[in-house]
Design goal:
Radius of gyration: 15 Å
CATH architecture: Up-down Bundle
CATH topology: Transcription Elongation Factor S-II, Chain A
Strand content: under 5%
Largest sheet: none
Number of strands: 0
Number of domains: 1
Helix content: 55-70%
Amino acid sequence: MPARIYSAALAAALAVLPRVTTAQQSNPVADAFRDYASQSAKNLMAAAEEFPADKFSYKPTAPQMSVGEIAVHLAKGNDYLCGTIGGMKAPTRAAVMTLTTGDWADHYSQYANYLRLNGMMPPTAKKPAM
């Protein structure tokens, strides 16, 4: 799968999740999730877009996921997790929401490490534009 398709699939999957939860009644857990999901999605998309297309097969060691495999994993996982969040009743839904953002944090740390191993800075390590 070409790098542009990986990035597009990841961006689409991550962009949908905060909207899925918007349909739910407002409550502190859902509000906190939406805020965290929005920031996590932004970081993940920026990290994926930081990699040049010819580096989507990069992985630090053979057993680790490649950059492209992380993007596909996130897109497929979001299909399942978004459906679960939209269709389950609390409190199980809250557990899946927490799992989702935790999974995103794990994969963002992979991207951040892979970027650094390739001489690039992860988005959260860059100084904000003034």
